[in-house]
Amino acid sequence: MLEMRLFRDNPEMIRADHDRRGLPHDMIDQVIDLDNRWKDLRYQVDQLRKKRNEAARGIAAAKKSGDKEEANRILSEVSNIGAKIEQLGNEADEAENERDQVRMRIPNILHESVPIGNDDTKNIERSLHGQIPEFTFKPKVHNDLIEQNAWVDLGRAAKVAGSRFYYLKGDLARLEMALQQHTIEFLVERGFTLVQPPIMMNREAYEGVTDLSDFETVMYGIQPDGFYVIATSEHPLTAMFMDEIIEPSLLPIKMVGVSPCFRREVGAHGLSDKGIWRVHQFTKVEQIVICRPEDSWEHHEELLQNCIDLWDGLGLHYRVVDICTGDMGTVAAKKYDLEAWLPGADAYKEVVSCSNCTDYQANRLKMRYRTAEGNTSVHTLNSTAVATSRALVAIIEQFQEEDGRVRIPEILRPYMGGMNYIEKSNW
Predict the structure, then answer these.
(1) Residue 338 phi/psi, 5° resolution?
(2) N or C: which end of the chain has fewer CB within 10 A?
């Protein structure tokens, strides 16, 4: 959420950002109008309180002098002032609440380097990594390979949980665990603290990290308790210091989180999205940084470099893209994606999202740190390290053999007992 001072002191900055995004100014004007109404109502309340205090002093003076008639006259004049103060106070609270509800839907200010574009076709390729795989045979899509090798049971999962859930079996399940372990060790060695978060959050905490009006449709709610099952560990990890003033000596806080993630993933998708690419439950290893504002852009590049080094180590071909204005969400000020090459699908597909959210989430979460000038909001950053199901798809398609076996990335072989290939499951 943008600080209220921006709407009061520099609304043109917000309007210029909306112009870059191709958004109207209606909500900006609404916030400013509601803020002016709130300030006017608070002023009226303050004036009435001042009048009541003056009346109290007048009544006391009249009683002291024995002028009962004057005391009654003053009392009569202010007899309904308490009810008026309460009424105007309630109206002020309503205006403030409505103002902040609208303000929470206004997106973050984009970094000046974000490319201009209407949609993902205008994202800019920043770099290419690894060699595009070459085959002496026609490569298969991952959904054919997982069926051929009995690595995934979608049918039985649908029977017990519904479509887009799956049982992961045999060597592919072991490879998924190897990916988790390797990624965690990789980031712990780079100074990140492993944290396993709760997988449910209340509404207040969730509204602190994302725009629920936009995101709620892809989430699973737990009723009547009012919880949400997390869509990514980014959310509970970022909200961990909600309503706290963080000691500056703790900054930067670097976390590597591992958790199951749950998403509805509604709508129609292409053939390459079948199998285990777009599912309702998956495991993700996430990077989180909470830091001083002046350090956040350096940390953004650090998170991206961690991803590059990690995915280079897997030996996969992928590209890094700079996300344009029309493909940005509400929360991030700048975002990079890693897109892995899927030869079966003949396309690059997103496997990592790396974002600097500046103080947007921190303002919503009331998450600050101490400075000599007073308390100020921290900056928050997040980046996928590995969403394991999507990484498995990239490995399956890029490292497939003609007989259907899949080579294990060399860096993961120690976690697999030295195996070179994942083999077909026997049932």
Answers:
(1) -100, 130
(2) C
Domain boundaries, the chain: 4-103, 120-422
Residue partners of 14: CB distance under 8 A and separation at least 6 = 2, 6, 7, 28, 106, 109
Residue 195, classed as helix, strand or coil, is strand
Strand partners, 377: 368
- Count other Cβ atoms within 10 Å, centred on residue 403: 9
On the question of a common fold for 4-103 and 120-422, the answer reads: no
Per residue of the chain (427 residues), give pLDDT as tens.
999 999 999 999 999 999 999 999 999 999 999 999 999 999 999 999 999 888 888 989 888 888 888 888 888 888 888 899 999 999 999 999 999 999 999 999 999 999 999 999 999 999 999 999 999 999 999 999 999 999 999 999 999 999 999 999 999 999 999 999 999 999 999 999 999 999 999 999 999 999 887 778 888 999 889 899 999 999 999 999 999 999 999 999 999 999 999 998 765 556 556 799 999 999 999 999 999 999 999 999 999 999 999 999 999 999 999 999 999 999 999 999 999 999 998 999 999 999 999 999 999 999 999 998 899 999 999 999 999 999 999 999 999 999 999 999 999 999 999 999 999 999 9
Q: What is the CATH class of 120-422?
A: alpha beta
Beta strands in 119-192 (DSSP E): 124-129, 152-153, 167-168
Q: Note the pTM of the prediction, 2 decimals.
A: 0.91
Cβ(259)–Cβ(284) below 8 Å: yes
4-103 in CATH: which number? 1.10.287.40
Return the number of other C-beta atoms located less than 10 Å from residue 180's C-beta: 19
State the Cα–Cα distance between residues 314 and 408, nearest whole angstrom: 9
Q: Across 311-357, where does the E strand assignment appear? A: 318-322, 334-342, 347-356
Q: Which amino acid belongs to residue 94?
A: E
100-138 burial code (b ≥16 CB/10 A, e <16): bebbbebbbbbeeebeebeeeeebeeeeeebeeeeeeee
**Which amino acid is located at 220 in the chain?**
Y
Specify the length of the chain in residues: 427
